[in-house]
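Session log. Operator J.P. requested a structure for one protein chain; no other inputs attached. Running the standard single-chain path with token output.
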Amino acid sequence: MIGWPQQRSSGDSGQRPGIFGRERLLRREAVFAAEAQRTQGHTEMVAKPARKSVAIVVPPSAQSLDVSGPLDAFLEANRQSTGGDLYDVRLIATGVSRNIKAGGMSLVADSSIVDDVRSIDTMLVAGTPDYALAYASAEFHAWLRRRAPKTRRYGSVCTGAFFLGAAGLLDGMSATTHWQHAAELAERFPAAKVVPDQIYVQDGALYTSAGVTAGIDLALKLIEDDHGRDLALTVARRLVVFLKRPGGQSQFSAHLAAQIADEGKIRSLQHWILDHLSLDLTLDSLANRVAMSVRNFTRVFQGETGTTPADFVEMARVDAARRLLEESETPLQRVASRCGFASPDTMRRAFLRRIGTGPNDYRERFRR
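Structure written below.
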């Protein structure tokens, strides 16, 4: 027989439930559990990162890798993500027609500047060998000036910087482009601060990269900024590229210079220098190594490489020091010694000549 609930004693915190009371409590707990599960699911759904809209703007006769390099990097980030697609990437044509050429490829853009109305998180203007078109694209200039301020970040790959410059978007800003066109960019747009020897340059919301494959480096940097180093490194491995290239952010390092010489002796010597930077690499010792007189060695070396032996050695030592500063906490004294500099002060002066900043400032800036 079911009776009324017992009278609570003074030590009880509340009424003890009978069978009906226990049923009500169980139903209430079930409701609370369902609500908690629904709330947790909602929280997880909210925590999932929203897809970022990436627009690659393709001028006429674009350099194909300027388009496909960043495109593949962002799409690979989608494939490697465990939380769904991270980027919604689209191509935008700069003319009325969506049919565009990129190198030997015929592409159909998702939209054109005439009809594209979707929001843009990240906008990159691809480069083209016909970058002289940048000076005769008034409608495109107006579109860039209208859309760029509404993006979170915008920029260019290679000679795409000329289109940004013609639209007035480089004025007062630091930027880079392909090393062969850096002097022309600086001459055409004197209000811009052109940095000729960097893989990519960030100045606020503006991101510009050097030539062709450097667009992949820039895309990896953007992916790392958005989703962390681990994902960017995974994407780099899948694309079989460096997350950060040997030689740091320089687009023309001693490693590249060592591939230019035609003379077998000189090219072999350059690679030997790169492997023995801590030695005393005087002009006499280098000439002796290739069995030449100092005068003849200097003439042949400069003719083959476009630089003097002393300049090449200093470039190689600065490149090696940059890598150590970027990748380790090695003290400056040890960095200088390992890279062949007589002292940290000698290294500092070489850094100021080559990249315009000292080793301490370089390490700090690179890690920001």
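Operator note: The longest helix spans residues 19-47.
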